[in-house]
């Protein structure tokens, strides 16, 4: 048998491709990240926790497999699993079930290896994700949106970012269309409104892409035409068609119509004086909805966060508008009753 540097050469021995590889695990983690954000956008926080957990598990395993597949072995591993992870799966009886570490084990190994094997570093690192681990395993039910759900999402995204940095993959490339809500979760100065609006915008863009990306131009236009809201809003001062901040189609800004009065200034002989009053019909918006991508925003804070106007000038007020305005004022004063003496 040939000898190379005093060791047996086994280069001609048959081998098999290991059943896991870093690229597949990375791609799987990406899919679960998208599912997690979709579930979160739909207020299904238990499913979001499950998907976030799988995302972080597969991403951590991608890190380990990138070094060597056998790093996925359980502490008390079975020999067939070792053979398969070592690329000798042809020696294993068909039907064998691969047994590897779970999320906690992957986090512990990642933490320990990044700490150069420091004692207890792996456990300490994994303990940071305790709430996520419990939610992932169904021990703790996150339930409705709130502090616990936000913490689980933040933990998962923060863990993913830490792994991505070590495998030289960019955050935006990994999270894709969900990069903005991911960044918002990690932003210590971000408000809850900012996080919510970024999540809804990303969900709407994702919905638009899934609905229209595979259509040709003719089919796309055929589906968009009946969704055009502009004709229905022309004669209604409580609604205004504006460009959707998510899909760039037209959605409806809605609220209460009102009249804004501004003095009309004039100048004569160097002196300024009010020559009259300019009355303008305005819309005080408090909601937005888009029939194309499904985006829904409620309240002035959410509208402002999405860079939508909350007060919009519609047109110059007519005599009929002013008469209606005065009638409403009188009606309101009667409802309030006379001032107490």
Overall description:
It is built from 14 helices and seven strands. With 341 residues, the chain is an alpha+beta fold. It folds into two domains: 12-190, no CATH class; 220-334, no CATH class. Strand 3 (239-243) and strand 4 form a beta hairpin. Helix 4 packs across helix 5 and helix 9 packs antiparallel against helix 10. The N and C termini lie far apart (115 Å).
User: Spans with pLDDT under 50 lasting ≥5 residues?
Assistant: 1-12
- Determine the mean pLDDT: 87
Order of helices and strands: EEHHHHHHHHHHHHEEEEHEH
Tell me the number of helical segments per DSSP (H or I, 4 or more residues long): 14
Tell me, briefly, the overall form. elongated
Number of strands: 7
What's the end-to-end separation, in Å? Answer: 115 Å
Percent of residues in helices? 40-55%
What's the gyration radius in Å? 30 Å
Quaternary organization: single chain
Largest sheet: 5 strands, antiparallel
Structural class: alpha+beta
- Number of structural units classed as domains: 2
- Percent strand equals 15-25%
How would you summarize the topology of this molecule?
Layout: E1 3-4, E2 7-8, H1 22-41, H2 45-67, H3 79-85, H4 103-114, H5 121-127, H6 130-136, H7 147-166, H8 171-175, H9 179-186, H10 192-212, H11 217-224, H12 230-233, E3 239-243, E4 250-268, E5 271-289, E6 296-298, H13 300-305, E7 311-316, H14 319-336
Antiparallel strand pairs: 1-2, 3-4, 4-5, 5-6, 5-7
Helix pairs in contact: 1-2, 1-10, 2-4, 2-6, 2-7, 4-5, 9-10
List keywords for this structure.
single chain, about 350 residues, alpha+beta, 2 domains, two-stranded antiparallel sheet, 14 helices, about 15% strand, disordered N terminus
């Amino acid at each position: 048998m040939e000898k190379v540097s005093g060791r047996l050469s086994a280069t001609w021995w048959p081998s098999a491709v290991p059943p896991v590889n870093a690229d597949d695990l990375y791609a799987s983690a990406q899919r679960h990240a998208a599912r997690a954000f979709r579930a979160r956008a739909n207020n299904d926080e238990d499913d979001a926790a499950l998907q976030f957990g799988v995302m972080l598990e597969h991403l951590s395993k991608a890190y380990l497999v990138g070094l060597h597949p056998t790093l996925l072995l359980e502490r008390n591993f079975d020999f067939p699993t070792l053979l398969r992870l070592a690329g000798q799966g042809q020696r294993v009886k068909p039907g064998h079930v691969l047994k590897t570490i779970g999320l906690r084990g992957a986090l512990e190994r990642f933490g320990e290896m990044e700490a150069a094997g420091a004692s207890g570093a792996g456990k300490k690192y994994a303990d940071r994700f305790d709430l996520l681990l419990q939610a992932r395993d169904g021990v703790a039910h996150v339930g409705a949106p709130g502090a616990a759900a936000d913490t689980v999402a933040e933990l998962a995204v923060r863990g993913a970012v830490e792994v991505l940095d070590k495998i030289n993959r960019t955050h935006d490339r990994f999270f894709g269309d969900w990069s903005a809500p991911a960044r918002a979760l990690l932003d210590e100065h971000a408000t809850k409104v900012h996080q919510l609006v970024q999540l809804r915008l990303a969900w709407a863009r994702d919905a638009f892409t899934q609905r229209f990306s595979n259509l040709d131009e003719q089919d796309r236009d055929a589906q968009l035409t009946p969704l055009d809201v502009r004709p229905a809003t022309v004669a209604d001062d409580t609604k205004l068609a504006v460009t959707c901040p998510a899909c760039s189609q037209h959605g409806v800004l809605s609220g209460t119509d009102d009249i804004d009065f501004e003095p009309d200034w004039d100048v004569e002989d160097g002196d300024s004086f009010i020559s009259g009053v300019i009355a303008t019909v305005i819309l005080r918006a408090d909601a937005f909805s888009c029939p194309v991508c499904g985006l829904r925003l409620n309240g002035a804070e959410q509208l402002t966060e999405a860079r939508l106007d909350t007060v919009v000038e519609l047109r110059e007020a007519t005599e009929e508008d002013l008469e209606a305005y005065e009638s409403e004022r009188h009606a309101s004063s009667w409802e309030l009753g006379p001032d107490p003496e």
